[in-house]
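Shipment paperwork, digital attachment
Item: protein structure file
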Amino acid sequence: MNEVVSSKRVTRTGSSDGFDEVLVDVRNLKMYFPITEGVMIPRVVAQVKAVNDVSFQIYRGETLGIVGESGCGKTTTGRCILQLEKPTAGEIISDSAERQKRVHYLLNVCGLATAFADRYPHEMSGGQRQRVGIARALAMNPEFIICDEAVSALDVSIQAQVINLLEDLRDEFDLTYMFISHDLSVVRHISHRVAVMYLGNLVELADGDELFENPMHPYTRLLLNAVPIPDPDIEKERAHEIIQGEIPSPINPPPGCVFHPRCPMAVDGCSKNIPQLREVKPGHWVACSEV
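Attachment content:
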């Protein structure tokens, strides 16, 4: 038996007569669980009537206690209210007008019409689905949001729209982002600082412009060198430096600096000593003994 014990006396502060706003309205709730027999062709032979035509209201600000013996339907009633179970019959109505107003507001903030609240994902474009995802992230009034490949599946024009939206929302709601992406051009556009990782290690961390204009770690340099230049004539003429070899297995990483088997600057000590992340100039951190 689960019990909550308190040494303080509980004082009743009011009844339903003292509250004038219904928060949850449960109407004729039924939750039946079928009992089946047979393996190849199961058939329903009986039903467990866990909740059988229950109706009650919960008022904003009150505490409604639900009691009864084990198996009486308390937990099932709660799960139905939270929509963890789909009721067999009945209605559960909760403060819908306020919730709908909030949904419409967030859709509008993210550049979508209120009609999108009633659409299924397959009825939306990729960019529209991404905007809905952003609206969902804002629903809980967060301070910090992790964007993991938030625009990777979108074409360039839609990417720009979503990135601009994220920047506007950051300013409007005072948000903080961690933006995870393999697209360096997008990262440069949206990020204040940039961290570069290789095989589970942080190898460089700096202000965005500083890192892109003055990369110090050999891996960062090779990454940036691999980014194509939009001008085809310049792209055709510039020298390319390809990262040699394959990424080692994280199960058995190389000793010393994990990048040394592929590093064009590697020396004997790189395979023995693990470089520490150190500040080589104000705000610019690098994990490389040769920098």
